[in-house]
Every structure is written in C-alpha cells, then in structure tokens.
Amino acid sequence: MIQEELISLIKSKIIHELSKDSLDESELGIFDTVDEAVCAAKEAQKRLNLLDLEKKEIIISTIREVCINNANRLAALCVEESGMGRVEDKIAKIILAAKKTPGTEDLTPWAKSGDHGLTLVERGPFGVIASITPVTNPVSTIINNGIGMIAGANTVVVNPHPRAVKVSIETIKLINDAIAKAGGPRHLICTVKKPTIETGQQMMQHPDIRMIVATGGPGVVKAALSSGKKAIGAGAGNPPAVVDETADIAKAAHDIVLGASFDNNLPCIAEKVVIVVEKVARKLMDSFKNENVYILNDEEARVITEKIIIDGAINKELVGKDAGYILKQIKVEPISDVRLLIMPTDKNHPLVHIEQLMPVLPVVTVSDVDEAIDLAVKCEQGNRHTAVMHSKNVDNMTKYARAIETTIFVKNGPSYAGIGMGGEGCTTFTIAGPTGEGLTSAKTFTRQRRCILVDGFRIV
User: Is residue 145 within a helix (H) or strand (E), and if so which, with residue range?
Assistant: First the structure.
C-alpha cells in the first residue's frame, strides 16, 4: 500500500514536470530513427573529444547531480511503467549509480622512460557506443553506462527495453538538458522514440557504431557477440549463497534476506538460491523467522512453483513482483509487506538452477561444505557472475572462490555489497561475465593508445 501511494504521488509530479518541457525532443537526444540518433551522437562525440578533462568532469558532475535530484520520480516512473521492483530500492540503485560510477579518474595514464626515450600510454575513446539496456535496471544502467562512456570521451546511443521506454527516455532527456545547461555538447546520450528488437539490431549493424554494450539476457548478449564488432556482454547470473557451520547464522539470515529481496530480486547479483550445511540448517531457518519473510510449506511450495514455472520457463508476469503479490496468486493472504518467500527444497528443484528474478528463494540443505560448493558451482552454471558465502573459515572461502570463479564474490554480507552498496569499491550495472571485462567502468569503454618519443626526454 505504501509503495502504491508513493507511485501515485510522484506520478502526478512527473506529468506536471513533463508538461513544462517545451524543447523539441531531438534537442534532448530523442529521435525518430536509429540513423538520426547515431548521426547526432557521432557529431557530439567530435565535440566531446575536444574537451579537456576538467570540462568532462563538470559534465559528469552535472549528470550525477541531476540524477540524484530526480531519483524519486524516476524510480516511481520505473515501477509504474515496468510493473517490477520496489520504488525505495530503485531510488537506492539510482543514487548508487550516480554517486559511485567512476569518472575520468578511472583513466590513469602510464609512462616509462629508459635508454631509448619515453613511452606514454593513455586511454582513447572508441567513438559512438550502442548500449542495450534491460527492463530490470533501466535507469541505473543508463546512468552507469552514460557516466563511464562519456568519461572515456564516447557518446552513447541507447536501445531501452520496450517495457521501460518512458522512464528511459525521461532519464536521457534530463541528462541531456542538464549537460546543455552546464555548457556541454548536446546529444551525448541519444535514443529512438520507439525502441524495439529491430532498432537494437539496426544499432548493432550501423557502420558508425564502434562498440556494443549489451546488458540483459543471453539472447541480446549472443546478438551483440555475433555483430562482428567490439562487444561487451553482461549476461544472466544465478548467484548461489553458501552458509557453512562457522557462519554467524543470525547475521547470515539477515544479510541473505536483504540481498535476495532487494528490488524484488531483479538485480542479477542477488542471491537466487541458498545452500546450507546440515549442521546449521535448522538454526538458519529459525533465524529467517526473525526476518520479514514467509516460509512456504511443502504444499504452498508445490503450487507456487506451478505458478512460477510454465512449460519449463519462468513466468514473466511474476518477474519483479512483490512477495505479497506472488503469495496472493496461491490464495495466501500475506502479512504486512512481506519481503521474501523462503522455499525449503531439495537440490533438484528447478528454481535451484533457474534465474527466477523474483523474491522466492530456494533453500537447500547438504551434508557438508564440500557438497555445498559442488552444488553451488552447478547452480551457477558457468555464468561466472556472482557468488556469496557466509563463513568464518578462510580455507572454505578460498576453496569456494577457486571452484566457482565468479566475477563477484561476496563474503559475509548482502549480495549488493559486491557493487559498492554497503561494501567498498565502485559500482556498475553492467557486469561482463561472458566477455570477461568484469565490473565495467570508463576504462572498459576506451582503447589503449601508445605514444613513443625515441631517444628523447629522458632526464635521468
């Protein structure tokens, strides 16, 4: 109820703000065709590339500020349009992307002098980048990629998910308007009015697109990698959380609920399955009862699984929905604002091995930590995305890390600590496991360039 009221209040403000916008949409980066969008971005990139670092940082600071100031209404619009997630969590993601995405400081030059002179290595832009963004994190991905790509002197053409068009366009308008008011070039981020699978394909094949960054499911990543261009693929994950007998069980339960329920489990980094050793399994389940969860009995788990999995695939109508909404599908009236549904099950349950993207968390009990690690590797399915462990045994953590080989490995905290929320380090919403770049940043979106002065400028 609280979430619905918040959406309604902020939605009225969105409509009021949009009605005041008198600028032509093309001036704010919104075009009828892919060709128009790419052409505008190409011209803007030429202007951007001439700016010094100080001016680029002013532009980036402007993006950070306008996104933070508009986080509430963008989050509300996102939930209202997509029907997914939680407003308060999307606000947190937007602010995280705006604050902790690296800027030009990520592009550190390197120099070496010696007997034969001086070599300088710097990072240069690719040019115009096509960014394919998901419905799960539309605003935060645009902000995150936008800051990193612009820091590297690239411009961006975005193909938003069709279920997040309005909020994506509104985000791009806000950013471009703020950049222009700060004295920066127009059209640093562009898009089309009606994005589709076809416009995404057109972007990937456009001769003036120099790099493709695809954030989403395996289909869009495969298309990007098949384009023949430099491509970065941020694909699916199925992060397993292992709890061994040395863990602080009460804290583990609390952290797991925080991570798995965050934005209704839409982030790919979120815990998708818990694997607990038998010795502490009962204690973990008892600790879950102290959290804002609902523990499904065997019959409820059976019926809810039939609602979630249809013909071997996840029911998209339930993706990102509140836990209470999912409970109502099986005629169970939830307690007030239950955050997560806990499903005790065995290792062969389909939800153990499928990325469900909803606040329903399978919990599997195994005999020991070795069996837990083996099962976790199978669950993760080689995505090399994210893994979580709750343990005080360094040997167990080391063994798990080496076995699972994920880009992100969180120990003794909620999964979202891995992207800098409550954990140290920068953030990203494009985690490139399939193509190996890992946590992307400005450096990822640049080319290494070397300049050599032979037999000169050696002062020692």
Answer: helix 138-151
Helix (H, G, I), strand (E, B) or coil at 21: coil
Which pLDDT value is given to residue 194?
A: 96
The per-residue pLDDT for 23 is 58
Own/partner long-range contacts of 347-351 (Cβ < 8 Å, ≥24 apart): 347/375, 349/305, 350/305, 350/309, 350/312, 351/273, 351/305, 351/308, 351/309
How many residues can be counted in the chain? Answer: 460
C-alpha to C-alpha distance for 168 and 81, rounded to whole angstroms: 10
CA 332 vs. chain centroid, Å, equals 32
pLDDT digits (tens, 9 = 90+) for 430-443: 999 888 899 999 99
- Determine how many CB atoms are found less than 10 A away from the CB of residue 214: 30
CB-CB contact of 8 with 168 (8 Å): no
Q: Mention every residue, 6+ apart, whose C-beta is less than 8 A from residue 140.
A: 90, 93, 94, 96, 97, 429
Instruction: Say if CB 66 and CB 110 are below 8 A apart.
Output: no
Tell me which H or E stretch contains 147: helix 138-151
User: What is the DSSP pairing of strand 340-345 with strand 313-314?
Assistant: unpaired
- What pTM was computed for the model? 0.92
Rg (C-alpha) for the chain, rounded Å, is 23
